[in-house]
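Translate sequence into structure tokens.
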Amino acid sequence: MRTRSIRMAALLLPLALLGLASTSATAATAPGKGSKAVGFIFVGPKDDFGYNQAAYQGSQAVKKQFPKLKVLTAENVPEDDNAARVMEGMIAKGAKIIFATSYGHLDAALKVAAAHPEVAVVQQGNFITGKVAANAGTYFGTVYEPVYLAGIAAGKATKSNKLGYVYAFPIPQTIANINAFELGAKSVNPKAETITVATSNWCDPAKQADAAKSLLGQGVDVLTQHQDCTATITKAAEKAGKMVVGYHADASKLAPKGWLTGSEWSWSSLYNDIVKRALDGKFTGSPYNGNYRVGYKTGKNPFVQSKFGPKVTAETKSLIAAALTDISTTGSPFKGPVYAQDGSTIIPAGVVPNYGTVEKKMTVFVKGVIGDLPKS
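Result follows.
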């Protein structure tokens, strides 16, 4: 999900299983078949209490599931040609399966896939436009669903009715998360509002600290974020005696008093399935040989709800459980009516949008979110 140059057009594509893959690979050249190693590249450190840590943990699940496979990992891999160089190095060490886990790694991943048709190359969070090569694909979860549930916890816990949201870039995925958080909070607390601050960086602790200070100074008593590294903001909330909602990974130990809940990646099952299909010579034509997306309604969403903290009441847990059942069956965090900041209608009354519609519509903040969207 990472990028330095935001591709708005790519993210406006429907969230669906886009069956655009070629099926021309033969059994003899099947991408990933019989690989002796699998490679994972991360844009940040493996211990960032966030996005990269969750991906690293997924790589270790692969190591456990496939003990005969050599698992190669590389941290702090930039979103440029260096990514291709690192992946090439992994291939030289026997990897025929590569996971490029950052949004901005897509171009490098496609370059490597084109040069090595025998290697299955999958990228986390971006979209491939046009025809998808027989050895390539992208994958991700529907992130706003558990964020909506976390918003319920925040809405019930706040005393000031002011929630703070630190985010990186105004891509539709981020906007959907912020909107879902506010709508979840407002579903149980009509007075709740979400104040936003953009850092224009996926991981800049100094900017995050400034953003947290600004929000706390405005009376916010629950902080949350859409950042790769989450420790700074989590610690800031705990130090100030305020509450915090996590993102990407379980950082509850950093805020033993203020932790409410959060959303985190549980990549094990998805990573293992991708590896198994590739090893068996069945990657081409599989759901992963395209732009694979999964949510609560369509399968096992790898983005899940985090554990509850001590301040979450039994009543709040019941409300969250009911909401989870609803959005997993007939409902949606964005069931209409949903209104934009300016009062215009985003989702009409009674409409339950599908995943693709939500992705298309999340280009503005909903009513109740405070802050202007910066130009990307």
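Note: The CA atoms of residues 31 and 255 lie 44 Å apart.
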